[in-house]
Amino acid sequence: MSEIITKQDTTVKQYKKKNQLAEIWKRLKKSKTAMMGLIIISIFILLAVFADIIADYDLAITQNPSIRLQGPSTQHFLGTDTYGRDIFARIIHGARYSLMIGFVTTILSVGIGGIFGAIAGYYGGRIDNGIMRVMDTIMAIPPILLALSIVASLGPGLRNLLIAMTISSVPSFTRVIRAVIMSVVGQDFVEAARACGTTDRRIILRHILPNAMGPIIVQATMSVSSMIISAAALSFLGMGIQPPAPEWGAMLADSREFMRYYPYLVIIPGVAIVLASLSLNILGDGLRDALDPRLKN
Predict the structure, then answer these.
(1) CATH homologous superfamily for 31-295?
(2) Which of 133, 129, 47, 96 is nearest to 246 (CA)?
(3) Model confidence pLDDT, tens digit, residues 195-217
(4) Where are the domains of the chain?
(5) Inter-helix orientation angle 87-123/125-139, to 10°
(6) How many CB atoms neighbour CB 103 within 10 A?
């Protein structure tokens, strides 16, 4: 009998979850700008996933001085750069680096910041005060400057770039998640779980965090956008992805001396950065409205 009741409860929870997701998707579709952002970022993701099929990676890294600085043509859709490398291939394969950096650093930041924020928001007191003072100290340094300092000390490269950007973005997620946890922790269902003898870990993971996912998802979506811009900025300064690997910020750095006579060298990677970050920002705005319970009606 108890097994039947358990199965029924599980079925009811799954049904409610599907209804909630369907309602969120219905509200999200009402925003034309959010759907436009979703379409644009989906195109970038598809280009990154199928980059090897769309354009050969050798075209993005192999230097060919005999065809350097050629304009767009049938052979090279977006032309060639100062080293004779195909710009279209570099943009496609560069999407892999930029999106990977954006999503990986955001996931790591949410995970680490979620742990600190949940502990601080749930327990409060001295634990909260100690964690938040450390985060305030880190946030006193501008994120891009902190990331630049960390990369400069560790050395340029993809791994060190991921470490630096994760460290610089953890405090913002810690503060957001802490605030959300504190708004949920005093509600009746949390007190009921405590009264039933539920462990703190289970309360945080099974009761509090699922009810606080809305603001976290919105913050994470917008964070990916800022991560892409920060990665491009660090690569532009020579502290990110190292040549000959294609990366949008590095492409801007290689082309700045020729932007007066060959503006397409700067415009193309610049447009890619703007479109990727803008699409994520407007998608984040749409998700915020779709996940806001006050806008259900």
Answers:
(1) MetI-like (1.10.3720.10)
(2) 96
(3) 777 777 777 777 777 777 777 88
(4) 31-295
(5) 150
(6) 16
